[in-house]
Amino acid sequence: MYWGKIIGFLVGLLARNPWALMVAIFLGHQFDRGLAEWYRSFQKRNSNNFVFPENFVRTLFGAIGYLAKADGRVSEDEIFNTRMIMKRLNLNPSQINQAINWFNEGKSPKYRLIKNIRDLRLATAHERKKRLIFIQLLLEVLFAKKNLKKEERLLLKSICLELKISQIEYAKLETIIRAQRAFKGSHVGDLDESSVLNAYKTLGISPKASNEEIKMAYRRLMNKNHPDKIASRNPSKEEISQAEYKTREVRVAYELLKDRRSIR
């Protein structure tokens, strides 16, 4: 955390006064200390394992779908990051399918975003920590984009107002998440080792596999499980649903490893 000192230094230089320079750097240092302390608290807070109620998860993925669609198009990165959020919440296959349905509902023009956010605020009236995590998870998906459009920022502002999250708290969350992403140098973000190992397991290969072996495993599984490939067998709705789920799992696993290992 050093941006406060850098800004203070520049402000001090503009003042062309040694004392002003020292004061500006000191104030910048104090800002960095406060942000660093908040960041440690943020990490500690998010290390807790919540068992999120259904209304939290439903509203989260509905809001993610709504915001992802706000600019008219849901990007592949937004879909990928949404899948990562599902994994972080430890959703089982049935819950993942439900979360996907909620995500799709959120993309509908008829989705009542503000009403659902207000309902969530009432349900978490005494759980401010959960409301902050809600905003954090939204940002982690939206920051798959390099820049947020005006419509998306206005929607985020409205959500924060409804959840009683101040603009200062929001700015801190945005600063931390952007810093994490820049530090990692990857759009995947903070992936734990278990997620990487699960990706290898999903593709049925060893972590020692070469990049070419990873590509081959991905193509083989996609060819085997894609719904279009089983259409000739006149599959049931359950079989189609399972094929779609497996295909999504394989694609997410491959994209994770592709980014992690810089596969071209």
What does this structure look like?
The chain has 264 residues and is mostly helical. It folds into three domains: 3-46; 54-184; 193-260, DnaJ domain (Helix Hairpins), CATH 1.10.287. It has helices spanning 3-15, 18-46, 54-69, 76-88, 93-107, 113-123, 128-142, 150-162, 167-184, 193-203, 211-225, 227-230, 237-260. Helix 1 packs antiparallel against helix 2, helix 4 (76-88) runs antiparallel to helix 7 (128-142) and helix 10 (193-203) packs across helix 13 (237-260). It starts with a helix and ends with a helix.
Order of SSEs: HHHHHHHHHHHHH
Largest beta-sheet characterization:
none
Strand content: under 5%
Q: Any idea how many domains?
A: 3
Give the radius of gyration. Answer: 22 Å
Number of strands: 0
End-to-end Cα distance: 33 Å
Low-confidence parts lasting 5 or more residues at pLDDT below 50? 46-50, 185-191
Helix content: over 70%
Q: Total number of helical segments?
A: 13
Task: Describe how the helices and strands are arranged.
Elements: H1 3-15, H2 18-46, H3 54-69, H4 76-88, H5 93-107, H6 113-123, H7 128-142, H8 150-162, H9 167-184, H10 193-203, H11 211-225, H12 227-230, H13 237-260
Helix pairs in contact: 1-2, 3-5, 3-6, 3-7, 4-7, 7-9, 10-13, 11-13
